[in-house]
Amino acid sequence: MIENSLIGVWNGTIFLPTMPILLLAHFFLNGDDMAGYLDVPTQQAYKIRIDIFENKTSKIVFNATSIEFSFYGTENNSILNGTVTSFSEKFPIQFFKVKNGSDYAVRRPQTPKKPYNYFEEEVQIENKKANLKLSGTFTYPKNRKAVAAVVLCHGSGGHDRDQTIFDHKSFKVIADYLSRNNIAVLRYDERGIRKSTGDFLNATDINFAEDAILGVEYLKRRKETSEANLGLIGHSKGGLTSIIASSRSNLIQFIVLLGSPGVPGENILYEQSKLILKSQNVSSSTFEINLQASNITYQIIKNEQNNSLVRLKIEDYFRAQLINATGQNKTDLQNAWTSISTRLKELTSPWFRNFLVFDPASVLVHTHIPVMGIWGKNDNQVTAYQNFEPMKNALQIAKNRNYKLLTFDKLNHLFQNSRTGSVDEYEKIEETFSNEILQVLKDWIIKKSIGKIDSFYDFFRFIFYYLFKILI
Question: Which one of 23, 306, 372, 432 has the minimum C-beta count within 10 Å?
């Protein structure tokens, strides 16, 4: 197979008039899919994710969209011949295979492998209002009616349909498990990401919610899921997407919130900063300087709508602080300013501005559909102790009698069993998503959906199927 011949490390050079640019492409299998990273040693840039990979017959295409890099060509006798496109410039290139394996290859034992015992389709969903198309994957049971169907809603950062993080494909793992258990799943690349069109950076929570609603409407139109109980599963930011979408569409009959905020984003970020700084064992002065810098930054962003003035006001703050700063305090202030300035485009995006002030409780107090919320006690990004009670209080105010909120020991923000919950552990852990949580999701969704089965025949067929599974 051509995929097996590609596994390894490939060396190529772009010859510019000023200097040659050395490239190293690392390819390996993650489940059935080719994965990889790009190194550009000349620029001291390493482990840039290759996020799109296609090969048809002898044609090979791979892309690192974060640096607007793509390769198109063919493979023959351990040589890749083709063209590199980078920032609209095209360059001829040859890659030569220099190693049969890559040190970047990872073990991800939960990544599903074919053959699947369910159907899988590549689909496109059109958002006419935003003039974009969402590219996704629809999986559904073979030879039986799906009891429920869900749309998966992504965490923050701009994700593909599998929500790939450090080669962990959590959404693919969730979709595989649920589809094997009579629950259909739609997952898609976020707008402006990978194969989906549109503008990610300028999208808001409302826009993401509209995309999710279009996904639910698509499930309603499909004959395989038209009579199924329809819901959303949202992780982290996707929890906010699910909460907002559920208030704007009567088709959504339940929501599952995984590591979801229950308080405004500013509170989440403040707690995140404290935990990260504490984990780094910084001095009390470093701790206070960084917390104050973050707090001032968020206040400026909340109160100033002009992004250019935001930058100027933050610069003024740091200049004033640096006038009399010396020693470690001066270094801490300079580091804080560097960190904030490099992220200002993200911090002043429409989504982030709304995230700072949006309180999910403002919607949850009016939410009456079934809600499941789950947090890991090792989650250092959206902590259980900060978000559990506010969400519970909001649902009680709504007089929602159909909610279930749970916490689990040792699970981090990605729902991996972890030692500390630190972000540094995500890549090192082989587990992608807790099997225990997968079962909890499946059991709760089926329990909430079984009443939706519309005939005694379907009911007994459904019960027989699960009894049979238990017996074997």
Answer: 306
Take residue 434 and report the two structure tokens written for it: 């807790």
Q: Would strands 254-258 and 371-376 be described as parallel, antiparallel, or unpaired? A: parallel
Cα–Cα separations (whole angstroms), residue 305 to 203, 308, 341, 350: 16, 9, 17, 10
Token digits of residue 245: 């979408």
Between CA 370 and CA 413 the distance in angstroms is 23
Give burial (CB, 10 Å; 0-12/13-18/19+) of 259.
buried
CA distances from 469 to 119, 463, 466 (A): 19, 10, 5
Selection from 68, 5, 15 nearest residue 38 by Cα? 68
**Angle formed by the axes of helices 350-357 and 205-221, nearest 10°:** 100
Q: Report the candidate in 391, 359, 390, 388 with the shortest Cα–Cα distance to residue 375.
A: 388
- Strand, coil or helix: 286: helix
Q: What is the pLDDT of residues 201-215, one digit of tens each?
A: 899 999 999 999 999
pLDDT in tens, 455-471: 444 555 555 555 554 44
Quickly list DSSP for 133-190: EEEEEEEEESSS--SEEEEEE--TT---TT-EETTEEHHHHHHHHHHTTTEEEEEEPP
Residues recorded for the chain = 472
**Cβ proximity of 84 and 38 under 8 Å:** no
Q: What's the token pair of residue 243?
A: 């909460």
Give percent of the chain above pLDDT 90: 76
